[in-house]
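If you are new to this repository, start here. Below is one unmodified record pulled from the training split, so you can see the exact layout before writing a loader.
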Amino acid sequence: MKKFTSYKNKFDLKKFIKISKKEDDLLKCLSFAYGIKNDFDPFDGNIQAMGLERFFMLISNFKKYKILYSPIIVIEDYPKDGSFRSCIESGILNCSVEKNNFSYLIFLNHYNIDEDITIRERKKNIKFSNSARLKLTIDYLKWGYPSKQMPCQKVYINNKIKWNPKELDNLKSEISNISYRKNIKFVTLYDL
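And here is the target side for that same chain:
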């Protein structure tokens, strides 16, 4: 496998936008944008370890285009016995090209060594409202954990976003209802 730095300047944002209109697998979209025939995996299936925000900063070439990622929430569960590692992250990926803005609602699911990153919603020249971000995140979690067995010890909430307090309380309540754990710690993502 080539080092990631050999790919950095080959990213074609127009190709990424074209394929991401119909493809939900973010890594397949990135493979296409880099012109890679096999799956794009420069981090050996462990993007979660560095976080999506850092990952998108690494793949961005700010001289050619604008691509920014902003997390909404990060849900983690790492039992002391080490029996499993779980991380679910939702966030918004914004790309700008030729006076058009594209927004994607992204979800990362990481369980032990299995990892997938999917595009759940897309918008062109319209941003996701804060209410929509929370509602879509809740809907995704309910869809992914219908049996209410979501692993969840700690939830990091992006405190750079001005949330409606009632909607944030609803998010916390919904996560508590879906999780099999009773003592969930809700914390802020950034030290401001």
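Two things worth knowing about this chain: The chain is about 30% helix and 30% strand. The chain has a mean pLDDT of 83.
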